[in-house]
Write a structure and sequence with these properties.
By secondary structure, the chain is an alpha/beta fold. It has a single domain, classed as 3-Layer(aba) Sandwich (Rossmann fold), CATH 3.40.50.1220. The strands form three sheets. Strands 3-2-1-9-10-11 form a six-stranded parallel sheet, with helices on both faces. The protein has a three-stranded antiparallel sheet with strand order 5-4-8, with helices on one face. Strands 6-7 form a two-stranded antiparallel ribbon. Helix 1 crosses helix 12. The longest helix is centred in the first third of the chain and has 17 residues. It is globular. The protein binds nicotinamide-adenine-dinucleotide and zinc ion.
Length: 276
Amino acid sequence: MSEGALNQATEAIRKADAMLIGAGAGFGVDSGLPDFRGDEGFWKAYPPMEKLGISFEEMANPRWFEDDPSLAWGFYGHRHQLYRNTIPHPGFAMIRRWAESMKQGAFVYTSNVDGHFQRMGFGQNRILECHGSLNYFQCLDRCGQEVWRQDNLDLSVDEGTLRASTPFPACPSCGSIARPNILMFGDWGWDSFRTEEQRGHFMDWVQNTRNCRTVTVEIGAGVTIPSVRNICEQLADETKGTLIRINPRDPQGTANTISIPLGGLEALRQINELMP
Ligand SMILES: NC(=O)c1ccc[n+]([C@@H]2O[C@H](COP(=O)([O-])OP(=O)(O)OC[C@H]3O[C@@H](n4cnc5c(N)ncnc54)[C@H](O)[C@@H]3O)[C@@H](O)[C@H]2O)c1
Ligand SMILES: [Zn+2]
């Protein structure tokens, strides 16, 4: 880490009057959640998938809900329960506090589907979940039923086989099988309504913070599907603001990037201590 990167980051955050928070799977790691970095990472988190030889890209495909709903709901039901039972780490509260002292506050752009920013008190209108949310379900048949929120899932999943037993979650309108409202691979059936609505809020925020001093803090965003990284780079570029990239393995960026090669919580803790 370059000499003074943490000091520079603290200074940029302290001086800013608006903050974009970009968060990828790595931001959940310090809460105890797995990221899916490579097959190794995915299989470590889901050993039954290794036995079946199924990669994350293969598993995150809506066709399983037709072809093998027990495995599809085993995988997503397990994740739904894991995200609900996991307590988000203290870094959420730290970064929220910094945002609260800024004139225009913060906006969160995340590929995480765990709903943890909402749970930690970030405003509904200040979050864009670009891959959707596992707290919301939709009808697999797209019968016209709107996306619905599903807090509790009464589903039994066998940890050894990662298979769920019937009954699987169903559409309240037509009774056909439900699926999580998240964007999968080769997914032409994803109902993007919620995310598009959030995108509208994001565009408004960007517009309203045009003349502000904006800092972008990106944490745990990977390089495989760089949606969050790209947005952070783009916004920092357009606003001529500072980009702070916190990532233990992939902290590299352009010459103006403040790279912090630490875990998310550790970096936020150190910056927090430097804050006046
Ligand atoms: N919590 C969640 O909601 C969650 C978790 C896993 C995967 N997913 C979904 O799957 C997609 C793919 O996820 P993925 O895991 O392959 O992304 P990824 O592997 O591309 O990104 C993970 C990144 O986090 C970094 N990282 C690891 N530990 C960290 C730490 N302690 N602090 C900060 N950064 C850390 C890694 O270096 C890596 O760059 C995501 O975009 C998301 O939609 C969601
Ligand atoms: Zn339906």
